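[09:14] KT: can someone run the structure on this one? pasting the chain below
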Amino acid sequence: MKILLDRLFALKEHGTTPWREMMAGLTTFAAMAYILAVNPEILAQAGMDRTALISATALAAALGCFLMAALANYPIALAPGMGPNAYFAFIVVLGMGVPWQAALGLVFWNGVVFTLLSVSGLRTKVAECLPPALQTGIQAGIGLFIALLGFKAAGIVVADPATLVTGGNIFKPTAFLALLGLFAMIVLTIRRVPGAIILVMGAVTVAGVFLTEEGSRVTSAPSQLMALPTHLSETFLALDLGFPFRDPQAALPVIITLLLLDFFDSLGTIIGVSRRAKLVDADGRLPKIGQALTADALATMGGALFGTSTTTSYVESAAGIESGGRTGLTAAVAGMCFLLALFFAPLIVCIPAAATAPTLIMVGIIMTEALHELKGGALEDWAPAVLTTVLIPLTFSITHGIALGLLAYLAIGVCCGRARKIPALTYALGVVFAGFYLLEQLG
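[09:31] RB: done, structure tokens below
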């Protein structure tokens, strides 16, 4: 078995082992398992069956992970994306009045266009036209974004009407456990303890069973370990593929918006976490970025067939990378976990925010290490990079952070006499982002 896995995923070439990859896959899954509960909750607002959505979410995630493993051999897991699912439910279905079946059709056609762009090689060229300093900013920005998600989930950072955010009560059990877990992860990682992240997650989950917060347990022991998946037929193949042809005026803006969100969220995530995994070549490029983006596009089409919104690459994949994941075996293990989740959902939902939050914060801290690459650089390079780093978490959007950072890079370059040194495709990308903002405002 070990020899077979090495041949399939080139484990020796990447300096890893089957055990390390499996632990990384489990860590990635644990960090993003929340989507099994959150995605159905959001899409159910559009009138879809919540129980069916749990199965659709798990199947879409599993398919995406397997495609990434098979096509790109990257340790990046996929699942229905946060952001696109809210756009699907609240803007397209509830806001525009598009039936959810038609909205699924739009997600599918977005995936078709996405796939065509990937096969043509255009998406790879777009990735390569992003300046190196901006790619560094993307990695660090995603790190801060992940950390913010972790602080928010633990209640360490909370909303405030006067200051936008403020510190929460760190003596509440969830926040306190999360901080203890974070400290333990840092110490164990420094001491190079294998599987440090998932070991701490397990310990925090067990501790949560014995602690209460606001009258209820931080987490509860499952009443049963297994449950059969049901009601998938409510969403499977329920998409309306003919809607864009019947009402192109309503469909086209939605497809374009979905495409932009999917394109740049996926691109930013893949660049950010792959750089951290040291999958780039000597020129700082990702050799299999095209295959990775193709896997992402095909996963979106498959997810629409199962009955869920856009499937995309997940920033939480960085958790598995920090646990040693370097190949597609990590993604494949995460995919197997999502399939098993169809039957072990009662056990999985017991993992509390107190256990996943420190994982996200830890990963975020490590990913910001990329900023040291900007040391000694010219201001016209690192200013847009820092803007990207800061704006990704502040706008709560990878796409918006990349867009504003790139537009700043172009504006600074033109004003400082570097216009001719900037590739034409980078200018074209700037025009696309400007159009994106115009479309968003008009919408």
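[09:33] KT: thanks! The mean pLDDT is 83.
[09:34] RB: yep, looked fine to me
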